[in-house]
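Fold it.
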Amino acid sequence: MDFFKRRDLEICNTPWKQFRGLMFSKRRNLLFDLKKETRLGASVHMFFVFYPIDIYWLDKNKKLVDQRRLKPFRIATPKEKAQYIVEIAIIEEKEIDLMLKEFTKKLPKFPDGRINYTNSDKAPVLTCFVKFKDKILILKRSKKVRTYQGKWNVVAGYLDEPKPIRKKVLEELKEELGIKKNNIIKIKIGASYKFFDPNIKMTWLVYPILIELKKIPKIKIDWEHTEYKWIDPKDISKYDIVPKLDESLKRILI
């Protein structure tokens, strides 16, 4: 995935911006151009950065040479020389839990205890990209769903109960596709974002998730979808997708 096409990256192109980085700041995603390849000069420190980040080092040809997840007050140096550094802020699961508790206080609940977002103008959602080798799974939404009927999406669902996000992902995969835990290699949480859809007057808090599979599963779609396809991620713009699905994809396929 091309970092340089991401719209959420702030370019650090002055000495002050490069010195300050993410110190004492809220979550942001940064791109540094060091002007030349260096190894020690591409070291990253996390002093006074109070949240974890994913770091990607790229050489002068913009080829990935190393990557690491770094916690606050740690230091990392790339294995090879790099000219570009990309820093992606990570949302921790405990922060998602706190957010859901706030929604729980303000909104009504269904009889089973789930948060009812029916009359809310804001809602957090999971956007789960299922990946097998070099393909991702997309699904066409049925006429029975509430929003974006007939558009292509991935496995998605409200964050409507205070439980670990990975547990919620596993439930969605099993419920919508019949995919079981023993077929999953890893689950990766991407950088979240929010956007307002003026057509339905809704603000979505989007949490992109990548799920990598061991083997291609036999897909069992439920009432929410009418068909599915395995596609090359580069082709996603060729489909009539739900708003910002391509943005979510950029945040996890890096």
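The mean pLDDT is 91.
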